[in-house]
Design goal:
The chain is of the alpha/beta class. The protein has helices spanning about 15-25, 40-45, 55-60, 65-70, 90-95, 105-120, 170, 240-250, 300-320, 325-330, 330-355, 360-375, 380-390, and strands at about 1-5, 10, 30-35, 50, 75, 75-80, 85-90, 100, 120-125, 130-135, 140-145, 150-155, 155-160, 180-195, 205, 210-220, 220-230, 265-275, 280, 285, 290-295. The longest helix is centred in the last third of the chain and has 23 residues, at about 330-355. The structure holds flavin-adenine dinucleotide. The site of flavin-adenine dinucleotide (FAD) has 31 residues, from helix 1 and helix 9.
Length: about 400
């Protein structure tokens, strides 16, 4: 059995785990990441793609924003389409000149993996049967199998960055955590297509047939979604049907047409809001999707994961520099203040834009009035813009 030792043992090489290791490295703290999948798998996993202003700035400040600055698309607004009209929310005007950057999550992951490996850091890919133990006491250990051999990674703290289906959250004794959840009565059918985006900026469409979103990953790759039933079978959606539905919901009746192209990937994503409290137990800290899930309507999942580990890295830095644990003790409460505001925003965007099975004509009219309000009132637009570009990091 191989025995290893590090300061912080991290489970999961998604944005949360990788960025935490990067931040710790910058402050001279050692970390080892244990990841269940292969390097190739994590570098090609298509997920989120919109970075808040503060997250962009953080990537640049910490030296891993070079490719993002070159290849990322800076967006100064988004469009809302409803009632046969398209209206723009202008971040330059409504959010003090801030912007979002369209840059794929898997590109962020590639940059972070390269930075880790370039700095001589350790990421153990394809680890099997990963277990987090000993965190109730003074001797946390991550046990796993790699290369056919069982290993033990001893550490001072464990960071559970292993996403919503990871093992860290479920290693915490039952009864120590409280979960808050809302499951939505719909899902998103998403495609990645080799087609130039038909709009420079994202279009969020509220339509009586259901929500649709035009997004993009680059000037030649479109990312498009339609709201579907949560139990929908992908087999019922040949490419032609998806394009037809997208054309109706995003452009119907206006003469404006989406650019179509070969579908590179398609899948159905369930929609839920979930928070677990607290996000720590003994010497185990949960971060990112391991602790919370947001519906993708507000484009917040990856941003929130990065915000959590920023707080955790600062708390660990304070501990290693001064021996003080107050910031570590406050970790959960500090993160949850932001998380609940982001949950509220993601729920609000979802509620405003989707068709719910229980909706009456009253609800439909109310949604249209809300969309009219946020696109015609400065205050209404500013609240959307401020949240979309990202609330400031306001922890001490
Ligand atoms: C299909 C899908 C589509 C999404 N689309 C969007 C979107 O369009 N917009 C948006 O804002 N957000 C989206 N999200 C959410 C966003 O991608 C996540 O919020 C983000 O990935 C969170 O990062 P994370 O590091 O916390 O978790 P993850 O990225 O999930 O990383 C967790 C890592 O832990 C690893 N792991 C899991 N279990 C173990 C284990 N037992 N041992 C070791 N390692 C383990 C996983 O392989 C993974 O690498 C999407 C999520 C999914 C699942």
């Amino acid at each position: 059995m191989g025995k290893m030792r590090t300061q912080v043992g991290i489970v999961g090489a998604g944005p949360a785990g990788l960025f935490l290791a990067h931040l710790l490295h910058l402050t001279g703290i050692e970390a080892v990441i244990v990841e269940a999948k292969s390097r190739r798998y994590v570098e090609e996993r298509i997920r989120a793609g919109v970075l808040e202003q503060g997250v962009r700035d953080l990537l640049v400040e910490t030296g891993i924003g070079e490719r993002m600055k070159l290849e990322g698309l800076l967006h100064h607004g988004i469009n809302l389409r409803f009632g046969g009209e398209k209206r723009r929310i202008d971040f330059s005007d409504l959010a003090d000149g801030q912007a979002v950057t369209v840059y794929s999550q898997h590109e962020v992951v590639k940059d972070l993996v390269a930075a880790r490996i370039g700095a001589g850091g350790t990421i153990i890919f394809e680890a099997e049967d990963v277990r987090a133990d000993g965190f109730e006491g003074q001797h946390p250990v991550i046990r796993f199998t790699a290369g056919g051999e069982r290993h033990e990674l001893f550490c001072d703290y464990i960071a559970g960055c292993d996403g919503s289906h990871g093992i860290c959250r479920s290693s915490i004794p039952e009864g120590a955590l409280t979960s808050f959840e809302r499951v939505y009565p719909f899902a998103w059918l998403g495609i990645l297509a080799r087609a130039a985006p038909a709009s420079e900026e994202l279009i969020y469409a509220q339509h009586e047939r259901g929500f649709a979103l035009l997004s993009m990953r680059s000037p030649t790759i479109s990312r498009l979604y339609v709201q579907v039933d949560p139990h929908e079978d992908l087999a019922n959606w040949p490419d032609d049907r998806i394009w037809e539905e997208l054309q109706i919901r995003l452009g119907g009746g206006t003469g404006w047409q989406l650019t179509e192209g070969p579908v590179l990937q398609k899948g159905i994503t369930a929609m839920r809001s979930f928070v677990t409290e607290p996000m720590q137990y003994g010497r185990l800290f949960l971060a990112g999707d391991a602790a919370h899930i947001v519906p993708p309507t507000g484009a917040k999942g990856m941003n929130l994961a990065i915000a959590d580990v920023r707080v955790l890295a600062r708390a660990l830095q304070s501990f290693y520099e001064t021996g003080r644990t107050d910031r570590l003790e406050a970790y959960s409460a500090t993160c949850l203040r932001r998380i609940w505001k982001v949950q509220r925003f993601s729920w609000w965007m979802t509620s405003m834009l989707h068709h719910f099975p229980e909706h009456t004509p009253f609800d439909h009219r109310r949604q249209l009035a809300e969309l009219d309000y946020v696109t015609s009132s400065r205050v209404g637009g500013a609240t959307l813009a401020e949240n979309y570009v990202g609330l400031p990091f306001d922890d001490p």
